[in-house]
Specification:
The protein is of the alpha+beta class. It has 8 helices and 5 strands, in the order H-E-E-H-E-E-E-H-H-H-H-H-H. The chain starts with 21 loop residues before the first helix and ends with a helix.
Length: 247
């Protein structure tokens, strides 16, 4: 049964995007002008993207390169939303991700802060390493010992590690696509069809979506409510319940 929202909550229970400061505006202007020269200094398979964190979720303000196909005005990735919820505590450097068409990328996200240490922008570099991976596979095949040649035990031990699963990051062209991805994957992670979910399962979905930054998007409550087959007032109460448990 749906209930009225507790504490008089009438808007999305989300953390706000960082506020723009005077020093932040200056930094946005400076780095916007640097995006193209940085991109030209990198391999042609690279892309440089600048996000204005005060504009989340549609935060892209400058792009050079076409690795992910995004443009100015497009939204952030799911990982940058998670950073927003965590307070942009750190840089994410040199991680791997995979595009929908199977291309492998190596990416870095650097958080730019003003003189008061407020997060202002995110400078992201994405490099398509698919071609280099193919070259490496050819080289490895050429230099690997043949079936009749002795092997180096030390080399075997060093290459026997479990393969690292690429960190997945979603590069979307609109907020609806980002929201749909976050909701569908979170419901999938809980592992129970919505029609069979009990309250605790739906609260867990809301908890994970809050951690993943979905509540930074407009209409987030309505989208979650529709997906979980409850009213938006029920979602408000779930969020209040989670906040009480965190106190």
């Amino acid at each position: 049964m749906d209930v009225v929202p507790a504490r008089g909550l009438t808007g999305p229970p989300a953390a706000a995007a960082p506020r723009r400061t005077l020093d932040g505006e200056r930094l946005i202007q400076v780095f916007s002008r640097l995006v193209e020269p940085i991109g030209r200094a990198l391999p042609t398979s690279s892309e440089v993207v600048l996000h204005d964190l005060s504009l989340l979720p549609n935060s892209i303000v400058a792009v050079f390169g076409d690795v992910t196909g995004r443009r100015v005005g497009d939204p952030s990735t799911d990982l940058l939303l998670e950073q927003a919820v965590a307070g942009f505590e750190r840089h994410d450097l040199n991680y791997e991700t995979v595009l929908p068409d199977g291309r492998r990328m190596r990416s870095s996200t650097m958080i730019i802060r003003d003189v008061a240490d407020n997060p202002v922008a995110a400078l992201c570099i994405n490099t398509d390493v698919s071609a280099w991976s193919a070259v490496k596979a050819i080289v490895d095949a050429m230099v690997s010992p043949g079936p009749d040649l002795p092997t180096d035990p030390e080399r075997e031990r060093s290459t026997a590690a479990v393969p690292h699963a690429p960190q997945k990051e979603v590069f979307v062209r609109d907020v609806d696509e980002l929201a749909s991805y976050l909701i569908s994957t979170t419901i999938g992670d809980v592992g129970i069809p919505v029609s069979q979910m009990k309250k605790e399962h739906k609260v867990e979905v809301v908890r994970q979506l809050k951690q993943r930054g979905l509540f930074l998007l407009r209409e987030a409550v309505e989208m979650i409510a529709e997906s979980l087959e409850v009213s938006r007032f029920t979602i408000y109460n779930y969020v209040n319940e989670l906040a009480d448990n965190d106190e």
